[in-house]
Amino acid sequence: MESYWFALLGAVWLGILTSISPCPLATNVAAISYVGRRVGNSRSVISAGLLYAIGRSLTYLLLGIILVNSLLAAPSVSHFLQKYMNKLLGPVLILAGMFLLELLVFSSRKTIVGEGTQKKVDRAGVWGAALLGFLFALSFCPVSAALFFGSLLPLAVKHESAIILPSLYGFGTALPVSIFAVLLAAGAESIGRAFNVVTRFEFWGRRITGLIFILVGVYYCLTYIFAIHIF
């Protein structure tokens, strides 16, 4: 039961870290600013930010439900995961940690938001923010992919949690976005200061998390693959 509470807190933290990582953070601020310029007053800017956050978090929830249930629904896959999940988790966590520490780096410049989508967002006004949130959530960069597929998904499968852990992950991604929407409504100076603070926090938060992932991954490898019990 104690490990499940750690998983709940871990899902929220992974969501927050995903949202404030360099690529998603820049995307989040740009998307809220893009919609905000077109909706006018500060209340609408905040509404746009909340809708954008909801769009992102619902996307992660739906992905979590589909992927976790798919993995657990197939009897052969489910049996394989139940038998070997702890052995697989070690290498997966080490790889995820290496991505977070930038020991493994892959560049990705692709975007799924074209000119046609931008026109649809413009026509939808403040409600277009939800569409942007949905689309940008699907535009995984290496760090966000490592956090979602390499960390959150194995955690959800291990605890057979297709709804709760992905929901908390989505909630975590929505928190920074909502805060930035409020700051954007307050003024550019406020969001500039907050951006600098979050960037410094993310730098250390991502590296500490990556180091923890590698250490836990090594522990899982030693314990469940090589049968070396440290504690």
Which SSEs are present, and which pair or pack?
Layout: H1 2-20, H2 22-39, H3 42-73, H4 75-100, H5 115-124, H6 128-138, H7 142-158, H8 164-186, H9 188-225
Compact summary:
By secondary structure, the chain is mostly helical. The protein has 9 helices and no strands.
Characteristic terms for this protein:
single chain, 231 residues, mainly alpha
Low-confidence stretches: none
Helix/sheet category: mainly alpha
The helix tally amounts to: 9
Determine the N-to-C terminus distance. Answer: 20 Å
Outline type: globular
Q: Roughly how much helix do the residues carry, as a percent range?
A: over 70%
Walk me through what this model shows:
The chain contains 9 helices and no strands. The protein is globular and about 60 Å long. Helix content is 84%, strand content 0%. It has 231 residues and is mainly alpha-helical. It has helices at 2-20, 22-39, 42-73, 75-100, 115-124, 128-138, 142-158, 164-186, 188-225. It starts with a helix and ends in a 6-residue tail after the last helix.
